[in-house]
Amino acid sequence: MKPIVRLYDPERDAARVAELYNRNNYGTIRSGSPLTGDDVNAVLQERCAALFMVGEDRGNIVGTIGYLKVSGRRVAGDDELFSGMFLIDPGYRMGFLAGELFMQSFIKLVERGVRTLRLEVDPANQKAFPLYGRVGFRTAGIVSPDEDGYIELISFLPGVVSDLLRTSFADASPQDMFSKYSWRSMGSARGKDLMDGVSVQDGAPLLTYTFPVKKDIIDVQVDMSSGAIVHARHNGHLFDWPETPQRSAPNRPERPSLGSRRLGEFTISLDSGGTLTIDHPRHPGPVLTDHFPVGEDGAPYWRRPAALNVTCQELPDGWRTWLGPITREIRLLGDKVSVVVNHQSEQRVTAFPWVNLRSGEFHLTTEGRQRTLGGPIVRGLWPPDRTDFEAAESVFDDQSYGASALWTDTDSGIALAATWHSEGKLRVEGAHLPAASSEAGSILYDVDLFDGAEALPVPDNVELPPSLTPVFHAVPSGPHQGWNPITWAAAETSRTDVLEAVGSNGSLLVSPDQGIVSWTAGQTKVLAAPFPKLRALGPLTAWNSGLWVTGQGAREDPEQGIEWGSGGRAPHLIGSPADCSGWEIQQRGNDLTALRIVVDGVKGAEQVTHVTPNAQIQAKNRAPILFQTDTNTDLWWAAARDRFPLRASVRRAAIGLGGTTWLVVENDQGTHPEILIRSTGEYLLLSLLARAGDTTTTSWLLSVQEMGSPTTNIKENPS
Questions:
Q1: Cα 146-147-151 angle, rounded to 5 deg
Q2: Could you give the CA distance from residue 434 to residue 364 in angstroms, rounded to a whole number?
Q3: Strand blocks (E) in 452-574
């Protein structure tokens, strides 16, 4: 029996959609919390779903597709939507259900005037790419997965088809015409390459859609930056294209500043979109980002917020801003920032400040808890991280009145302490301060700013979240002097591009333009690498080395964050036959149990060394991750390794390699050092970031140590 595709019914479909998602490990169940029907409806409401369709077969929901204003904490621009919540039960993936979901939903999107679709996709999901190509999605160049592991695709097909229906070539009903001119007949959309039909002219990416119409060919070229139609050709000849609606600028404008104030070393700024930012010179990028609050129909998301034109009035001690019925007053009082939000109709309003402290601890005190809950920041473990399912119920939802939240980064000596003085709800999720909502339309909170390690508040009687355990253990630092470049020799192998170094207690194999492909210390295999083969590591589709070096944009860029190491690799290894400026591996004497990785670059540039330790989750002697957020103490934290994804930005890390052997990673040189640990479930990826100073170099120390077992009493979560 063929599945029926129809509109979603919130009352009779919600629980069955939740069951579909749970049994396919989609949504919050990946972090151990199954979805409910109420969760599904809450998610659709908060993501401002414009259209949601389901496939039903014999009483079961076997597929869904949604078109939403929000995805990946980004808000779509005018006449745009994100395609998301696209899932097909495995037994139906080889049939016609996927095509029917897209076909019927596209017809409705054209009827509703939607012109552009965006899609966030895991690049490792190669099986889905041909389908996305057939429905017009493309990428405007080579892109790297963002910190969440996704790339963004874009389709202008709804708008192009809508215009095409108004040309002289249209000779049927809209439904028939859409089918005739849809992906089913698009010659250029059948390739697997998501850059098929994409070209660059005068620096602008252009996308050409090709439609066979009877015996004719129609080519329509779109400017991918603006969505504007560049030209249309019929059998190679230009023809007049129907006038299209005026498009607004893409939803990523640079908003001019309306002014700034100082509180000590902190700078508090406001821009024309109503976004409040708090900066500190010891922190890369804003410490806090607080976008203008939203009403019941708004999208409370920070990564690419809605484009707003907020009215602002300067006050002696701050600003008063308003948009429609919502006002927000920001006042600087002593060492605190006080924020008051009001909805003039006393309707629901939400404030969603976002903390950008990447390393440190987060503590929460609410009315419903006996004591403070807190610990080191490990996204996925603490605080919970439910991208795209933020509205699903949380055990941390509580009353806002009297609640307090504390974010501290001891190494930088910066802390934010927030207190709420109004009735409403708090939601702890991701890096929200947390988010606060009020059904009565009033939110009041203060943010105290602390500067200097000696001034940071320390909470008492803290209850730790599950999966995080404190460990007091002195882990020796690696040597910081006496390093020498390694002398390389051609490896005894048929692969002449592989170099080798052998020491008294270890060996290295290096591909000069790829990275370290093998490192053995004593009898321990230190790195995991599939070289010379390629395989996927999460969204990294071409993983082959155990250590490699790349450059990337600033980590504080909300669009990208810290990428997954798929960008341009650094030049060849220094000391190799193709000797040039790039990166270098150093050793002490003849010892290969410790390495110093030195990267030469441009002053102020972000330089990243990526490491995949040999610590697969399937290993029998699998050990938790040990890390420090404060290097001035012997306190380490242990995070249990299970099959749930997690990420943590830390100062030092120790990864168990089996038994009592550990790989210890720490910074040696560079500003704003950070180790981002990401768990894919099977493997770990460590991205070591630092910015080059006056010497234009950064360096990291990696040492293999026998430390005993400081984690003997740590219990892991069951897999």
A1: 25
A2: 9
A3: 468-472, 484-485, 489-490, 499-503, 506-511, 515-521, 524-525, 535-537, 540-543, 547-551
Helix 157-164 × helix 97-111 angle, to 10° = 60
Tokens in use for 112? Answer: 């509703």
Beta bridge partners of 190: none
Instruction: Select from 695, 696, 647 the least CA-distant residue to 674.
Output: 647
CA atoms within 13 A on the CB side of 194: 23
Per-residue pLDDT at 576: 54
Residue indicated by tokens 């139906």: 92
Whether the CB-CB separation of 572 and 581 falls below 8 Å is answered with no
Beta-bridged to residue 690, according to DSSP, are 607
Buried b (16+ CB within 10 A) or exposed e, 526-540: bbbbebeeeebbbbb
Q: What is the pTM of this model?
A: 0.92
Strand partners for 336? 333, 448
Cβ contact 427:435 at 8 Å: yes
Q: Residue 523: count other Cβ atoms within 10 Å of its Cβ.
A: 8
Angstrom distance (rounded) from CA 260 to CA 496? 58
Burial letters 392-428, b for 16+ CB under 10 A, else e: bebebebebeebbbbbbbbbbbbbbbbbbebebbbbb
For 288-332, the pLDDT digits (tens) are 999 999 998 888 788 888 888 899 999 999 999 999 999 999 999
CA distances (Å), 655 to each of 617, 642, 664, in order? 12, 14, 7
Instruction: Specify the pLDDT at position 585.
Output: 93
Identity of the amino acid at 46: E
Tokens of residue 700, six digits: 């990291």
Digit-coded pLDDT (tens) for 642-700: 767 789 999 999 998 888 889 999 999 999 999 999 987 778 999 999 998 777 889 99
- Strand, coil or helix: what is 242? coil
Return the HEC string of 276-339. Answer: EEEECCCCCCCCEEECCCEECCCCCCCCECCCCCCEEEEECCEEEEEECCEEEEEEEECCEEEE
Q: Are 499 and 519 in contact (CB under 8 A)?
A: no
Scan for tokens 């053995």, then name that residue: 520
- Please say whether the beta carbons of 558 and 277 come within 8 A: no
**What angle do helix axes 10-23 and 37-46 make, rounded to 10 degrees?**
100
Helix (H) or strand (E) segment spanning residue 646: strand 646-650
Report yes or no: 385 and 429 within 8 Å, Cβ to Cβ: yes
d(CA 671, CA 693): 7
| Phi, psi at 692, each rounded to 5° | -70, 135
Measured CA to CA in angstroms, residue 513 lies from 533, 547, 574, 688 at distances of 15, 11, 10, 19
Strand, helix or coil at 174?
A: helix
